[in-house]
Amino acid sequence: MKARTSSFRDLVHGTISAPESRYSVTGHTTPQDGPDSASNEKRNKLLSSLMSQYLARDVPAIQRQIVNHVEYTLARTRYNFDNFGAYQATALSVRDRLIESWNDTQQYFTERDVKRVYYLSLEFLMGRYLTNALMNIGIHNQFTDALTGIGFKMEDIATEERDPGLGNGGLGRLAACFMDSLATLNYPAWGYGIRYKYGMFEQRIHNGHQIEIPDYWLTYGNPWEIERLDVTYPVRFYGHVESTGHGFKLTGGEIVRAVAYDSPIPGYDTYNTLNLRLWSAQPAKEFDLTSFSRGDYYGAVSAKEASEKISSVLYPNDSTDAGKELRLKQQFFFVSATLQDVLRRFKKVSRPLTELHTKVAIQLNDTHPTIGVVELMRLLMDVEGMGWTASWETVKKVFSYTNHTVLPEALEKWSVSLMVKLLPRHMQIIFEINRRHLEETARKYPNDGHKLQRMSIIEDGHPKMVRMAQLAVVGSHTVNGVAAIHSGLVSTRLFPDFAKDGYRILNMTNGVTPRRWVQQANPSLSAIISRWIETDEWVVNFDLAKGLEQYVNNADLQREFAESKLENKKRLAATIKKVSGVEVNCNALFDIQIKRIHEYKRQLLNIIGVIVRYNKIKKMSPEERKGVVPKVVVIGGKAAASYVQAKHFIRLINGVSDVVNNDSEIGDLLKVFFLPNYNVTLAETIIPANDVSQHISTAGMEASGTSNMKFVMNGGLIVGTMDGANIEIREEVGEENMFVFGLHTPEIDHARNQLKYGEYKVRDDRLSEAMNQIQSNMYCGSDSSGPIMNSLQPYNDYYLVTRDFSSYMDAMDRIDEAFKDKTAWIKKTIVSVARMGKFSSDRTIREYAEQIWDIEATPFIPGSISYKS
Ligand SMILES: *Cc1c(COP(=O)(O)O)cnc(C)c1O
């Protein structure tokens, strides 16, 4: 087998000296942000000789480093530390290495004066760092050996890490996959977001109900981040606008300090290391003297304390936003700090701000950071003194916007009155942006008041609202959707007026990183791919997996695929055993649906299908039961704390699980599990074990989905609707390798109306029986079964669960038939894995870089930096 070779691996991790030029400088700059300091040759010579060597990668050196961290950083004794101590010391040892390449990378970008992309996202769902970092920089084996030598197991150490759950679901995970691809492809990029103290809540199940436990993930510290007490910016809320004679100025109000926390993002097999900068809110230094003069010392302190709330908690919403003032504060807080940071970096080299777009591209991950369009206008005009026209032209060249949903209820809006109170200057600027925008539109389309209303940033009504999506479109040079069908709907349904008016709306089909989702999550499959295609280059070029297809009829490959699958199913079975105490049959078909619980994702359709399967088996004779394909159904996902209906779904699923799993007549033929607390780490265990996964949203409602990609890459087949990226996955793997069912998007509105007005009646005895059982509270109490039954009435069945039911059951039958032929099934999975190249986030990121950001891959060249600038 041809192994990847890389000069960087040897440079970075060998015992080779650092490039001499690294510290042969006449002015050492803290690579991130420190002030330029006057220098003296002698001092730098000394520093250079002190640090002439990168950290060594040999096992004894790694062991020394780990033990040193135990003693000098953790202040524990080297003779007595537990798994968690070993994890911390290991993480710090890895971080030390990342800091070398990270500093050099940032300095290199600065000296090359490259254009950077800034990815602004309210969520980054990163998952654990340790294994990812070690595998990306190619020293996993050395660290494993080093730990073994001092009496620890890498598997135990890695599981000590808390999952930083700084995201809800797909949107946050997309940001994380993108960071991995940006680093791996050597693009100059930064991620910016919020360092929430409380991430996504921990989900527990109590009597079948979801319980939310606050996730204070920082309890035991976060060894991957670096607090930058020197990188802080003031962010002003409330206050009032003053005229300065030649412009406007915002004064008064409340100032909060944003403090930077940086985490290095290593790419795979490259020296380049990117930065994820998350902001934390702290009280500002400025004191309000009046409260002190009144003697209200404690009151003044507690008022200051309140400002920390801004970065306290991630809003656990998915697709619906509650319109909370604190949420808008979070958005403005992180965007304002980010833009100040970006402008400061740009201004290190003196050049006109009208050239900002030649060095800066800013991607808005959904509308959440859209207030940045307005904040940049304010900074350019009020602080930098630029005129309106020049500022607006600059802003439009810098921003681009990714839309993540066309569901009307999920489009962000803020009331004008809230904006006026919280961000008075910004509201003024929005009114002016809108005035000019509508004036121009009216010139082009005179006498079309409806069009103006639709395109307006301000929605008329009581109360008046600011539509963040319209603002994002108007303030960006490019808008993109996240899968072909979704981008089409963005053009035809969400923003048809803008599309006709020539606004640039592109499609960037999502992807996932094959590093985390195949190489790290599925070691046995990874080894098979590398062995058969005779290279591990697929890790950075997933198109190469195509090479598997020529061996699809080879019995050895088929056997290896089957063995790998069995091994992964055993791993999941162990998790199921731990959670439920139930031992499952690993030869059963593993049928999995894990994703946020949402009506449009239709976990209800899945669980009704399970009930029907249960009823069918119950009615069978012992002889007939011999023909049943045994099945293990796994469902997981969190419901937003305020999403009552989604919580009823969880209750029903757990109720069905209780009935079915405790029915001795059923035995191994059917088992159902709700696995609590779905997160990235759990996904890494569950996904490789799938035979089938369910992506069964009502057509037109799932923008893309990304777990569908992860599942197929891991050797499973999809049962799904023609929605989101399912459509493109089907194009790639072939319709014979996917179980497709259900109405298509153009049919949905009509079908809904037919149901509603009784023009179409669903008749299916299996469905009626299942509904009767739910109605009779066989699985859960009426507090849950009532609302669920209500949602299934024809006039209420907005998501068309009953309408798609028969078609769905047909697909489930086709799965059973296909699964009985083991060889044919394995061949389908081999072909599917081989054809998933398109869904690597590397492809997605290249498209963004070339078509939206206009940035260049900039791999670090050893010995090329001077630290002079
Ligand atoms: C990939 C992923 C998602 C997105 O799943 P969909 O099924 O595409 O909605 C959500 N949560 C986690 C933890 C993920 O890894």
TrEMBL record:
It catalyses: [(1->4)-alpha-D-glucosyl](n) + phosphate = [(1->4)-alpha-D-glucosyl](n-1) + alpha-D-glucose 1-phosphate. Its cofactor is pyridoxal 5'-phosphate. The keyword Transferase applies. Residues 19-41 are annotated as: Disordered. GO terms for molecular function: glycogen phosphorylase activity; pyridoxal phosphate binding. GO terms for cellular component: cytoplasm. This is Alpha-1,4 glucan phosphorylase.
